[in-house]
Write a structure and sequence with these properties.
- With 512 residues, this protein is of the alpha/beta class.
- Helix content is 30%, strand content 17%.
- It is built from 16 helices and 21 strands.
- The strands form five sheets. An eight-stranded parallel sheet has the order 12-11-10-9-5-4-3-13, covered by helices on one side. Strands 14-15-16-21-18 form a five-stranded antiparallel sheet.
- A hairpin with a 2-residue loop joins strand 7 and strand 8.
- The longest helix has 18 residues.
Amino acid sequence: MKNKFMKFSAVALCAATACASAFTFTACGGTDYNLLQENIIDDNYDNYYQIFVRSYYDTDGDGIGDFNGVTEKLDYIRDMGYTGIWLMPIHPSPSYHGYDVTDYYAVNSDFGTMADYENLVTKAHEKGIKVIIDLVVNHSSDQHPWFKEGAAFRNGQGGSSKYSSYYNWSSTEQPKYSKIGNVYYESQFDKSMPDFNIEGTALREEVGNIIKFWIDDKKTDGFRLDGCYYYSSEGTGKSAEFCEFIHDTAVKYNENAYIVGECWGPPRSILKSTFYQSGVNSFFDFEVTGEVVKAVNNNSSTSIWNSINKNFDSADGNIAAPFLSNHDNGKGRVAGQVGREADKIKFAYGLLSMFSGNTFTYYGDEIGMTAVKPQSDPDLRIGILWDDIENVTTPPFGASEKSEYLFGSVKSQQKDESSILSYYKLCNNARNAFPALMRGVPEKIDYDDREVLIMKKTYQGQSVTVVINTGLGDKKVNGVEGALAQSICVDGNISKKGSALKMPARSIAILT
């Protein structure tokens, strides 16, 4: 394994051990985050940032975010401590969301050209940022030429038998099937999204070509697998086997390709026993969101430990993928889940940052964005507020007319050391600076206080001790060994005298 950033002076590392509040914004006269990260390990553990390109940053004045906009914001992304980005669907599509693809070998012209995408990937790699994209191969659009040719063949109107084999058909009405002409086709999500026949030899060859195109030709670093639990209606085993096919194909072209699956539906036990056996690096843990919110609202160290432990166990030696919100989360963004309170938003992310694996942040959560109520799917995809409302991208069709930015813009929060954005940055860079936080095996250390969690995380013989005060008042935590290397506080500072920690409410201490 290589180190990503070797150009920075090691002098700055003194902050990690010499200051009781290293990495906090008031300690040591200000901390250079990049200098504190010169030894980031170059493996598949990363802090990921999820981007809806359409709503991110517009560089040509048409109101639509574009690839060049993401490229322009790479310095911001990297400074925030993110070392990977996930681009939601970038292919041509008739919808605002893009999950009904009409061409798997092209990019949406609203976002720019293929050359713009290639430039984004190149520039991201120069800054030590990986780029993964949505691979939507559970279904295509009903507007895709493959489906049109296949449907024509099935209806005796010419068409293509090859493309007909890409889809699942029936001559009679079936549950979750839609009708076209005189035949029915499987469409588990919507009639506009015909499901692929993942057992078909021709379809698998096509998917293999798509993977090669993006991994080998375009140097994309991997994929997020959309709807992979639903690849087959015949059971989880066949869906997991198709995940294995995708993974094995991707690593033929890049041995370090990173794959994360959206496996919405099954319990953690099925992730462990079935899906992680496919070889896919990660699967999103949809149970984490509610567990973290519960821990924040109930001030419960037990809740957060149980979630950390179960999340790690279910990954079965692979890379867990905990997250707090995304475009599919019915409970909305982080700000909406915890009650639109800045301290709770911060602490929820602080807790998430103590999980092993790869955390995923939905764009805009770092400034506490939320959706108006009642929220819709388009409301979860509104533009991020960079500086003022005039520069926000045009909301997706169907979004509410009034968008809410309760805690200010990126620009204003960058100037505020106590902002949500500054707290997210602090947490991300802590994960980068201490390898055991991301990669370590968690072990609980008994302590007789329901609001205090003490755990040890060990990776390749190196350990950190994490102490979390989930309570709403100050705590004195005794018997804690090691040097205080970092404080993550919603408010106030942590101090250590001997083996005793003085911790303010909702604070996290990292000791080495």
